[in-house]
Write a structure and sequence with these properties.
Bound molecules: NADPH dihydro-nicotinamide-adenine-dinucleotide phosphate, ketopantoate
Function: Catalyzes the NADPH-dependent reduction of ketopantoate into pantoic acid.
Organism: Pseudomonas migulae
Number of domains: 2
CATH topology of the largest domain: Rossmann fold
Distance between the termini: 37 Å
Protein name: 2-dehydropantoate 2-reductase
Number of strands: 10
Family: Belongs to the ketopantoate reductase family.
Oligomer: single chain
Shape: globular
CATH architecture of the largest domain: 3-Layer(aba) Sandwich
Keywords: NADP, Oxidoreductase, Pantothenate biosynthesis
């Protein structure tokens, strides 16, 4: 089986480097700037679990040789439309597309472009960023990826994807509740992004100051009540863990959107916050904290031009 990873950034590069190190057939679809960076310096992952350095197989859009078995889509939401155009030649009748993107909006966009039958649900949990040399830097050691058919069924192709992904140096699981998993991940991320970006600090920074815990609780409550109304009911174990994680004193946890904001990079304000706010507004739900953080992020985007 062959996988094409679209985007050799912090998530695509991370999982791709692990898969390639485990001997899988991995090709990265990249754009010219990343191509020359990776050709010169290789693909490096700096991790507390051990560094990895590989010489990746790289192609640009014009060099796609034909359909791949799996396409792992690992671009930011604002780069989605152009990435879908660039990867067209890699998608054939039997290709399965696994998107690593956060949120839910991309699912409709991909299904519209390539058909829902080519799309699997997918969630990844890893904390990675690119440093100034283009190296992937992992915070913490968690590195989970889960995937499943959108209708929760068992299928031959899920079994094949799992055979390819498992035992490659990260935690790979199949899920029969992948849509709920994606909504839960979005819940976690929207709440975490709100706490980090509005308060400009890690979960622990916010939890340790007067009023910080109460603010975090209000932000989580708001996101959870919206998700209950517009998405899928989160499970009790997820909620227990989310409230604990997002109010934990001493926790250095930050969301990737916050890390991007602090580094002056582009952010996924629309995909992670705006889309949820829009869904809440469409149902006539109050969402004062989401509205506040969304405006805050739009100001950052307007000021930075990102
Ligand atoms: N980082 C994290 O900790 C986590 C991120 N996520 C989600 O994963 C998704 C990807 O994020 P992340 O990996 O961090 O993003 P990065 O910005 O680190 O990487 C995205 C990569 O996509 C490349 N790219 C963009 N457009 C194209 C294209 N048309 N063809 C080829 N390559 C392209 C960019 O390359 P170029 O240099 O050419 O711009 C860049 O290297 C996001 O939705 C994010 O929310 C999910 C879990 C954790
Ligand atoms: C799991 C988590 C919160 C880790 O950073 C993430 O997915 C993200 O930040 O995008």
């Amino acid at each position: 089986m062959r996988i094409l990873i679209v985007g050799a950034g912090s998530t695509g590069g991370f999982f791709g480097a692990k898969l390639a190190s485990a001997g899988r057939d991995v090709t990265f679809l990249v754009r010219p700037q990343r191509l020359s960076q990776l050709e010169q310096h290789g693909l490096c992952v700096k991790s507390p679990a051990g560094d990895i350095e590989i010489q990746p197989q790289l192609i640009t859009s014009a060099q796609i040789p034909g359909p791949f078995d799996i396409v792992l889509l690992a671009v930011k939401a604002y780069a989605l439309d152009s990435a879908l155009r660039d990867m067209e030649a890699a998608v054939g009748p039997d290709t399965v597309i696994l998107p690593l993107l956060n949120g839910m909006r991309h699912m409709d966009v991909i299904a519209k472009k390539f058909g829902a039958d080519r799309l699997l649900g997918c969630v990844c949990k890893v904390a990675t960023s690119l440093d100034e040399h283009g190296h992937i830097v992992q915070q913490g050691t968690f590195n989970d990826i889960a995937y499943g058919e959108l209708d929760g069924s068992d299928s031959a192709r899920i079994a094949l994807v799992h055979t390819f992904m498992r035992e490659a140096g990260f935690d790979a699981t199949t899920s029969k509740t992948i849509l709920r998993d994606m909504w839960e991940k979005w819940t976690l991320l929207a709440a975490m992004g709100t706490i980090n970006c509005l308060m400009r600090g890690s979960i622990g920074d916010v939890a340790s100051v007067k009023g910080g815990h109460a603010f975090a609780m209000r932000a989580i409550d708001e996101v959870v009540s919206i998700v209950r109304a517009v998405g899928q009911e989160p499970s009790e174990p997820f909620l227990t863990q989310a409230y604990r994680l997002l109010t934990l004193e001493g926790s250095p946890q930050t969301s990737s959107m916050y890390r991007d904001l602090m580094a002056g990079r582009g952010i996924e304000a629309d995909q992670i916050i705006g889309d949820l706010l829009e869904r809440a507004n469409a149902k006539g739900l109050e969402a004062p904290i989401l509205a506040l953080v969304y405006t805050n992020l739009l100001v950052y985007q307007a000021q930075s031009g990102k």
